Amino acid sequence: MRRTASRTAGALLASALLVPLMAGCGGEASAGDDGTVTVTVGYQSRTINTVTAGTLLRSLGYFEDELRARGERDGVTYEVKWQDYATGAPITAQMTAGKIDIGSMGDFPLLINAARGKQLNRPTKLVSVTGYNLRGGLNTVVTGTDSDLGSLKDLRGKKVSTSVGSAADGTLVRALQQAGLDPEKDIRKLNQQPAVGASALQAGSADALSQFVAWPGLLAFQGRAKALYDGAELNLPTFHGVTVVEDFAKKRPAVLEDFLRAQGRATEYLHAHPVAASESVAKATGLPAEVVHLYNGPQGIATFDTTVKPALVAALEKDVPVLRSAKLIGDVDVGSFVDEQYVKRVYGSAYAKARAAGPPAARGGEVWLMGKDTTSAFATPAEVLRYAAGHRGEVRAAYVPDAGTGTLWFADRAVWVSDGPELRPYVTGAAARADAAAHPGARVVPYATALELARAS
């Protein structure tokens, strides 16, 4: 790398702290002259695995409903102010400046949030989870569609765009290390915002892009990138969660519980109305609904559950050394950062069972036809192909799970392996080639061929 990790880290944290404070935003549930209590929520509309604490929750109005009912009981008027950001860093800056009460962000930014809160004497707490993937499939490394890079080892000497301090950066670091590359010396890391990195990839000034949801899926859907590395190959959980300023939680615990209750209702809505939820988030963010559904649908890459699962806390513990080695944080006491008491009270006696429950059983894929407000689920990827082949011109999106990691991907962007009567999809070409090499007679085939083979079977 051309710059040291410490200089990059310092620049990131400095930029976060220099974010202009927004005039009129609340912070610490401030009360106005008229007695109105303002609660300020920071969220990332396009980081769509936080939607149950952000975009979707805002559109449904559930938090406002909860506070309206509380206000009627207590004789207090509550107002919610929503602040939208591209990443978690400015949310942390606003929280530590006393301008945001509740925020949502990914796991690596959550640790930076904990570290900055402690450093600036405005401690924060992790109080619930939004979307997670137990294998790490929410982060992906992509290259240009015409790139001849075939595996992570091919990144030696190449320029790779990522957002330093993000979970996607953590995936990149760990994946390179597993591939035998030194993340500090063997690549040129470009510290860029996701949109800037996507443009750099398109322009050829970056050879690869490591990013979090929804950027990899968006670029693949648009035909602007192909997957080089599926983050689920790490088999390490990644997630997004809700953090709160500790002073706010202590001062207004009932309001925080109202937020978590509203988040739970938004989660139930997402599960009960997945297509409507995808369309709603798409409308609010400008993202294609097909991309939102890839991550947030019933078979999507993310699982939504507000409980703070032991596996996710353990993952945070493993994330600390990665951020510490990049000089982004010092030591973080994860145990003291995690505070389940509020979400436990919202759940009641059902919490322990919900916390212990795993993600839904893996299924075989989904097809979304044009003009339909529901999708069709299938037992196997081959069935997805046969259905898609029989509805040519009608398919809005077809999704299939990676045969190795289970990561959902667009069927027409997947890399297919034909092995006798079997058709196996993969997110990356490297995984498909490895499968074909391990099975005599198997071959990698394009999507069009896979469709014809499935229809003929």
From TrEMBL:
Domain of life: Bacteria
All residue ranges annotated as the SsuA/THI5-like domain in the record: 91-277
Keywords assigned: Signal
Signal peptide: 1-31
One Pfam family of this chain: NMT1
PANTHER family for the chain: ABC TRANSPORTER SUBSTRATE-BINDING PROTEIN, ALIPHATIC SULFONATES-BINDING PROTEIN-RELATED
Protein name: ABC transporter substrate-binding protein
Organism: Streptomyces atroolivaceus
High-level lineage: Bacteria, Bacillati, Actinomycetota, Actinomycetes, Kitasatosporales
